[in-house]
């Protein structure tokens, strides 16, 4: 499907697309999406379950296929009931596709989603992998921002960490977190972290953070500046634990990222290692 709409890059969320595979890996994403829809008074919460389409399986095991679809619809009904308890209305949809990530991207375009919410991996994901292949491809191809939520994460949106290296991709994340600070009064603290690869580049990291802090102050938003030296993914995950962060905001790529890659290696590692939810922001040029 042609991506022929401009998602609400900033501002209130009007359309949230929750993707679930019915496994425990989706538990955190389900809770986060419902809370997000409730807090942002979202007008549309859509819950999508994609069943991988296999032509040979379809012809030889139609009864089994029908049973799986019925189970999927029962799961969506359970999510709908959970949302209703929080006064959130949602619509459940089942799609069949041999490329699950494409079905998710297409639905995001069809629904003009402002954000896609999904788990870090699915029931078919290998635990040795940092992140499931479907999630990685969705982040890379999505027309909007993607919220990746580990299964055990509790996203309250109270303590948020911006991870930035000053690149164009990070600038989009910086804009997002300042806008978020202005529209979300329940946020208790925002920190901005830039990681230097060595002591020689620490001053550059400090300047990057100070620029963000100054920009936020002009908008009446207080941001705590943080810098570190080492591997970015390790420093970010350490900050999440030390500061009790429940959501990290970052771009898809960093300063050294190659645009032909779906996601930069640092972003991928942070998504795979962080105990907190990760909001991945797409740059306007991405």
From TrEMBL:
Domain of life: Bacteria
Protein name per Swiss-Prot or TrEMBL: Universal stress protein
Residue ranges annotated for the UspA domain, each copy included: 14-150, 158-282
Transmembrane regions: none
Organism: Candidatus Nitrobium versatile
Pfam families per the UniProt record, alphabetical: Usp
Family: Belongs to the universal stress protein A family.
InterPro entries, per database record: Rossmann-like_a/b/a_fold (IPR014729), Universal_stress_UspA (IPR006015), UspA (IPR006016)
